């Protein structure tokens, strides 16, 4: 892919949610039965779906992103970002990727790996997980348990940062700033470019 200085590629989740139109939403792995009942993320159905999604995205990255151009020689400049299930998939994918594709890192907002998800890391990867203290779906104590599980999958947990305070967005921006190296000073100096601080 021949992309400009900084590129954002947003991939849609592949699993339709039963009883909903395509425009209404999709999931990264099965979350609901055909009757609309929850499928636990720890179930074999969800785990199998996560594995299928991982293979699809991995194939896409290998065939379309890392195949030629600047990303072939600099996979460490590729960052994965996801929210909720997307964050879970980003974490899972980063841990499972081949050492030859040493991506720059992962930012997951409210997305954690459940017990049984993910594989032992094949290489070191930098991770930032952002989790709010007032999330009604995931109390801080559960987030801490999930953090311990994730640390157990990583080669070195020093590369894991968890933000659980009001400065979450600043931590995300600092993570991106420390990992994204391509900049265009001339473009940044243009009068119609506004920097969000």
Provide a descriptive summary of the structure in words.
- Belongs to the AB hydrolase superfamily. AB hydrolase 2 family.
- Residues 69-179 form the Phospholipase/carboxylesterase/thioesterase domain.
- The chain is built from six helices and six strands; from the N terminus they run ββααβαββαβαα.
- With 197 residues, the protein is α/β, with parallel strands linked by helices.
- It has one domain (15-182): Alpha/Beta hydrolase fold, catalytic domain (Rossmann fold, 3-Layer(aba) Sandwich), CATH 3.40.50.
- The strands form two sheets. The chain has a four-stranded parallel β-sheet, with helices on both faces.
- α3 (85-96) links the parallel β3 (79-83) and β4.
Summed up, what is this model?
With 197 residues, the protein is of the alpha/beta class. Helices cover 35% and strands 11% of the residues.
Number of strands: 6
| CATH topology (fold) name | Rossmann fold
Number of domains: 1
Distance between the amino and carboxyl termini: 30 Å
Protein name: Phospholipase/carboxylesterase/thioesterase domain-containing protein
InterPro entries: AB_hydrolase_fold (IPR029058), LYPA1-2/EST-like (IPR050565), PLipase/COase/thioEstase (IPR003140)
Family: Belongs to the AB hydrolase superfamily. AB hydrolase 2 family.
Pfam families: Abhydrolase_2
Descriptive terms for the model:
single chain, 197 residues, alpha/beta, Rossmann fold, four-stranded parallel beta sheet, two-stranded antiparallel ribbon, 6 helices, globular, Phospholipase/carboxylesterase/thioesterase domain-containing protein, PLipase/COase/thioEstase, LYPA1-2/EST-like, AB_hydrolase_fold
């Amino acid at each position: 892919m021949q992309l400009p200085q900084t590129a954002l590629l947003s991939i849609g989740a592949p699993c339709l949610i039963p009883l909903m139109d395509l425009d209404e939403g999709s999931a990264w792995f099965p979350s609901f039965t055909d009757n609309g009942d929850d499928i636990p993320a720890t179930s074999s159905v969800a785990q199998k779906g996560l594995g299928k999604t991982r293979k699809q995205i991995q194939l896409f990255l290998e065939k379309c992103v890392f195949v030629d151009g600047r990303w072939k020689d600099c996979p460490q400049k590729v960052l994965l970002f996801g929210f909720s299930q997307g964050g879970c998939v980003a974490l899972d994918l980063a841990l499972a990727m081949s050492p030859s594709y040493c991506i720059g890192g992962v930012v997951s907002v409210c997305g954690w790996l459940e017990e049984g998800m993910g594989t032992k890391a094949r290489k070191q990867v930098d991770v930032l997980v952002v989790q709010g203290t007032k999330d009604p779906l995931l109390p801080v104590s559960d987030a801490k348990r999930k953090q311990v599980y994730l640390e157990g999958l990583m080669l070195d947990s020093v590369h894991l940062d968890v933000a659980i305070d009001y400065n979450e967005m600043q931590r995300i921006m600092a993570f991106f700033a420390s990992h994204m190296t391509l900049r265009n000073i001339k473009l940044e100096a243009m009068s119609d470019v506004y920097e969000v601080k």
